[in-house]
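BUG: 3D viewer hangs when loading the predicted structure for this chain

Environment: internal workstation, default settings.
Expected: structure renders.
Actual: progress bar stalls at 90%.

Input used:
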Amino acid sequence: MGAQRDVLANDLRGHVALDMLSAATHLYALGPLEGLRGEVSIFDSVPSIARILGDTIATERTWKARACFLVWADVSDWTWRLLDPAPPDLDALEGPLAVLAREAGHDTEEPLPFVITGTSVEMTLHVLDKRDGLPHDAERHEQAKVRRTLRGEAVEPSGGDPARGRGAACRAGPKLASVSHHHDKETTMRLSARNIIKGKILEVKRGATTAHVRIDVGGGTVITSSITNEAVDELGLKSGDAAYAVIKASDVMVAKD
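Structure tokens produced before the viewer hung:
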């Protein structure tokens, strides 16, 4: 929807009304806010507008905004892989992404959406904040970027195949903005989760369609996960294997004995 080249040719109008997309169920998108006064990012159909307010990045969950353009993908189900060793930066993702695309039968000539979750060693992100009132071009586009550096935070970058463009969006704690550089310690691909705990598989117990996988994560703690038998076969899980318990922590419940 729209194009970066139009923005660099001084077309800063809001061509995309976000509320027109509010009915989408699994939308991932990113783009500059109208007038280049912020960033639009959408993760699994949850919108967020990032703006610069004083010295901080402020975010708002709303569909009531317009974007100059959007790069988008509709993904209902991600296939994930653990990258070990983790790539040192965004450039190093190109090779693994190409391999995963071929394995999945994806047309390598088409854009490849991806999601990464992990903990940043260091990440530099930016939010556009154009205030000069001057005609826009590539040089002024760089000048309009307000950069911040994250260290040691849980992050969730999303974007397209880096071989075809560096556009990416990143959710990091309460912040949501564009990413220009990324390093992380533990990285999984196409996975929306906050906590990754390494352990050893104690048992894989199959049922008719579902298997219970028990993982010893140390300290006397065993985590049991229910996954499909098909997933067990695809991952080749068996007793004694090193594995990761990946916990999606979007909700926290409270219990009492």
